[in-house]
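Per-residue structure
===
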Amino acid sequence: MAWFSSATRRPIPVNYTKGGQSSVRGVVVHIMAGTLAGTDSWFRNSRAQASSHFGTGKTGALYQWVDTADRAWAQAGGNTSWLSVENEGQGGDSLTEAQLNVNAEVLAWAHKVYDVPLQVASSPSGKGLGYHAMGGSSWGGHTSCPGPKIVAQLPEIVARAKRLVAGQDIEEDPLAGMTKKDIYDAVWRTDSVPAPETSSTIKTNPTWQAVSVLSDIANRVRGTEATVNAQSATIKTLAQALAKQDTKVDVDALMQRITDAIESVTVRLDVDPEK
């Protein structure tokens, strides 16, 4: 017997072959064209002539209907050597994040129990994570199951299964695969920083990129430096003019006294603008 402990057991009394699973090449992904509850009910009806080992719900529920030692009736000629996972949804859907996770859990479990390779399979002769349509007419001719959007998600399921097997978090590192430029753009070129209150376009452009704010600050600093340099030059000129009229005037000392006075006023303004 092989029941996955992370799945909710929902054994069905009909629509499967006892002891009929001759081997396990991999796991086949399907789409229900219905709900998890509806599929659960249908598999219990002898008229269905269909079943699956596992089933997922859009919010992450995972059912197991058939012991993996027994043959589920999911993909015709592929039933004897492949396990099956039906997924709640309709043709054309993508799997939800929760469904991607539970499919990855099933694949990781099949890897541990049956040594299923953690790779995407594209034909019945392969091994790993496959999909219903890859079996063609011998698997019932269901060419639209589970649909191209879900087929495109199979590599992500495999990647998550690998992380599970390695003991890592199932969710992917959000920075994985990002270049330095991608990270730079995400931090510095995202239009989300409140615009300076003095901006003339604040009503029409209330948020700026961080790089724009930094550039604005740099421009203001350069403007302030230019003003300070101009004031210093003016003060020095005045001091030199006074020195010509009074030989006792120490230009450097006068400059320092004026500079100290300006800095004193500036510091007081910075510390308490109301004083």
The first helix runs from residue 36 to 42. Residues 238 and 244 are 10 Å apart (CA to CA). Residues 267-275 have pLDDT under 50 and may be disordered.
